[in-house]
Amino acid sequence: MAWELTPDALDGLLALLDTDRDRAADAYEQLRRRLARLLVWWGSPTPDEHVDETMNRVARKVAEGEQIVASDPTAYFRGVARLVLQESRRAEQREDRAARAWHGVREGPGETRERERASACLDRCLGNLTPETRGLLLDYYGDDRIRGRHALANRLGVSAGALRVRVHRLREDLERCLTRCRARRFV
Question: Which sign, positive or negative, has the C-alpha torsion 47, 53, 55, 61?
């Protein structure tokens, strides 16, 4: 049976954040927003779910009587969030390997057609971008990622972090375009 957040566990979690309940509630909401942004930055496909799991795990530890000794409790939450994301990625990889093993190594005609449709959608969505934006994305995800990204950031006159944020936003736009394109093709 899955563990559920109880009122007592929530009280313990809030007490970890601040002794004043109102300030603790504000700190809780602020922490949730920060963790969600951090998980997005780390590449989480479902940051809200990962934040919920993070909060539940810390609350469960507190409810079980474990002492969270940290000069900054938010650092503890960040560490748990990182572990939650890593576990999620490993589970995804296991499922992917299992699916490949189940379906065999060779692709059938359906998979080939799906890959062709996805490729056509990618071409269409990349074609909708300006040449500069398309070039930025292609350069960012090029072969020599580390040195190439630093050189790209220098060439654009921005920090590596600012470049990462810019590309993340562009990638989100591209993914929305791909989702719409695939949906049109399957209707």
Answer: negative
Burial of 106 (C-beta count, 10 Å sphere; 0-12/13-18/19+): exposed
DSSP string, 63-123: HTT-----SSHHHHHHHHHHHHHHHHHHHHHHHHHHHHHHH-SS--HHHHHHHHHHHHHHH
What's the pLDDT at 187?
A: 42
What are the CA-CA distances from residue 65 to residues 9, 13, 25, 122, 169 (Å)?
10, 11, 21, 51, 41
Scan for tokens 């563990």, then name that residue: 3
Q: Which domain holds residue 130?
A: 109-186
The residue that leads in pLDDT, 117 or 37, is 37
State the pLDDT at residue 151.
82
Number of domains in the chain: 2
User: How confident is the model at residue 5, as a pLDDT?
Assistant: 81
- As a residue count, the chain comes to 187
pLDDT at 1: 47
Indicate whether 91 and 126 sit together in one domain.
Answer: no
